[in-house]
Design goal:
Blueprint (H helix, E strand, L loop, with lengths): L4 E9 L3 H10 L6 E5 L5 H5 L2 H18 L14 H11 L6 H9 L3 E4 L1 E6 L2 E5 L5 E12 L3 E3 L13 H5 L7 E5 L3 H12 L3 E6 L10 H13 L3 E4 L1 E9 L2 E11 L2 E9 L1 E4 L3 E3 L33 E3 L10 H18 L19 H4 L12 H4 L2 E4 L4 E6 L2 H6 L4 E7 L4 H6 L6 E7 L4 E9 L6 H10 L3 H4 L12 H8 L3
Parallel strand pairs: 1-2, 1-6, 2-3, 6-16, 8-9, 8-14, 9-10
Antiparallel strand pairs: 4-5, 5-6, 7-15, 11-12, 12-13, 17-18, 18-21, 19-20, 20-21
């Protein structure tokens, strides 16, 4: 190999939360691992998604919680201070300085390569730095693609400098009038945050409900809460044209109220946030040199190995696979793929037999392949994915919805309970509203899904996740005694609703 080519055992593309975890786990048997990152180490979650968005949402949650408790409400005499909220958000996002995360990468024994990577062939890449310099890189054993996803901006909004989630979470001013196009997680969370900060918010939803991936009652609760706080939520609404005129954006919005009933509204706002979906960030990776399709997700098996390519050297994890769309699930996949690579290419194992770079003896990953819940298989991606939406009320769910369970031909039972009827709700706040619902596979007497809607229900989700992943029989859950008075008492009430 020429002297001007840098060789590593493993090369990971992307130093976000997924790439960092994959690289760290892959290095634990002594493999030399390089991480390539063209932007900030720490990725989307640290600077433009999870962390700054929750920093924007938290102040409104705290204020609402205090105002809901008699005796404490009188202590609140004002509203949020937008400048202070944005300043705190800047602190949470480390002022978009990745020095601390770079130090972590280097402290973990990983090599950081700054620049944009493109494949030139199997296990071969070039990394182009911001200064235009190009470095050839080769992976002896494996490459992991963890480049995440990017926001999709519809063509009709492409010319008006529309915000995506990045601009919304890093904004340094609060627009007086904000249109949010979309009805999913980003749309509902940012509508909540900017309404709290004082924006006049309009949410334009093409479909007929918010949070379409969740149970219908969850989206309905969020819609009611947004409307109660002065947010306009328009369903069956599509932007047909958009023009920016100085500091304003003029939108033509078509509203459908029936198959042949449509009216067009002119809506003028200061900013437009597009939250209509995301796509795998694979368009400019040189995938065509490998016979793969640029811009498409990388389909993988449960070991996170790319299925469309032979040789067992290319892996992918996180949003880029189309399997996951959250940081926590992406990190789970990263741990799996890192462990698979560390075991398969363990430098302490002699020789190569299963392909050019796998150990002669069966790897631990191969030995565990037949185990459904092996640490070398991302089994939870199929039916045990947890999701939290930090709206007010919060929405948290795991596993299958009722509709998904029926589509899977399960023998479905549904148990529900109003959280406001719990003793804990009376203590927590006056007028507490919320609901818990679980989906049961009657044939096996186990939970396959659970949804919670209400204040602070995010912290209730992990118990449900353990029950779904552990396939705990409801008869056994009866013996898991919830503390009183806490919201977790709903588990007892759900079982009682089942006649237990």
């Amino acid at each position: 190999m020429a002297d001007d080519v840098s060789e590593f055992d493993v090369v990971v593309l992307g130093a976000g939360a997924v790439g960092e975890n994959a690289a760290d786990r892959a290095s634990r048997t002594g493999l030399q691992v390089a991480v390539v990152e063209p932007e900030l180490v720490g990725g989307e979650c640290s600077y433009w998604a999870c962390m700054p968005s929750k920093a924007l949402l938290r102040p409104g949650d705290v204020l609402a919680a205090v105002r809901a408790v008699a005796g404490a409400d009188g202590a609140v005499t004002g509203d949020l201070d937008p400048a202070a909220v944005l300043a705190h958000r800047d602190e949470v996002a480390a002022h978009w300085d990745d020095a601390e995360q770079v130090a972590w990468v280097e402290g973990a024994g990983l090599t950081l390569l700054r620049g944009h990577a493109r494949f030139t062939g199997p296990r071969a890449l070039v990394v182009e730095g911001a200064d235009g310099g190009v470095r050839a890189v080769r992976a002896r054993h494996a490459v992991v693609v963890a480049t995440g996803s990017e926001a999709v901006v519809p063509e009709v909004l492409a010319g008006v400098r529309a915000w995506t989630s990045r601009e919304a979470t890093s904004a340094h001013r609060v627009p007086p009038r904000l249109a949010v196009v979309g009805g999913g997680v980003v749309a509902t969370e940012m509508a909540t945050a900017f309404a709290d900060l004082g924006s006049d918010v309009t949410v334009l939803v093409r479909g007929e409900r918010l949070l379409p991936a969740a149970e219908s009652f969850a989206g309905e609760a969020v819609a009611r809460a947004l409307v109660a706080r002065g947010v306009r939520v328009a369903f069956g609404a599509s932007v047909t044209s958009a023009v920016r005129d100085g500091d304003e954006v003029h939108l033509d919005v078509a509203h459908r109220s029936g198959p042949r009933d449509e009216r067009v509204e002119r809506l003028t706002v200061d900013e437009v946030l597009v939250a209509t979906g995301r796509r795998a960030a694979t368009a400019d990776l040189g995938l065509e040199t490998l016979g793969l399709v640029p811009g498409a997700p990388l389909a993988v098996d449960d070991r996170l190995q790319v299925t469309a390519l032979d040789g067992g050297w290319l892996f992918a994890a996180g949003d880029v696979t189309g399997r996951t769309a959250t940081t926590h699930q992406g990190k789970y996949d990263a741990r799996v793929v890192g462990d698979v690579i560390a075991a398969r290419f363990d430098p302490r194992a002699a020789g190569t037999a299963d392909g050019p770079d796998a150990p002669r003896r069966p790897s631990r990953a191969a030995e565990a392949a037949a185990t459904p819940w092996s640490r070398y298989r991302a089994t939870a991606d199929e039916a045990a994915v947890p999701q939290v939406v930090f709206t007010r009320p919060q929405v948290a769910w795991v596993g299958r919805t009722e509709a998904q369970a029926r589509d899977a031909n399960l023998d479905v039972g549904v148990l529900g309970y109003e959280l406001g009827d719990l003793a804990a709700a009376t203590v927590t706040a006056g007028g507490y509203e919320g609901r818990a619902q679980v989906v049961v596979d009657r044939a096996r007497d186990v939970l396959v899904g659970a949804t919670f809607v209400g204040s602070d229900v995010a912290d209730m989700l992990h118990a449900a996740t353990v029950a779904v992943v552990g396939e705990v029989p409801l008869s056994r859950l009866w013996h898991a005694v919830p503390s009183y008075p806490t919201l977790s008492e709903v588990w007892l009430r759900l079982l009682e609703a089942d006649g237990r």
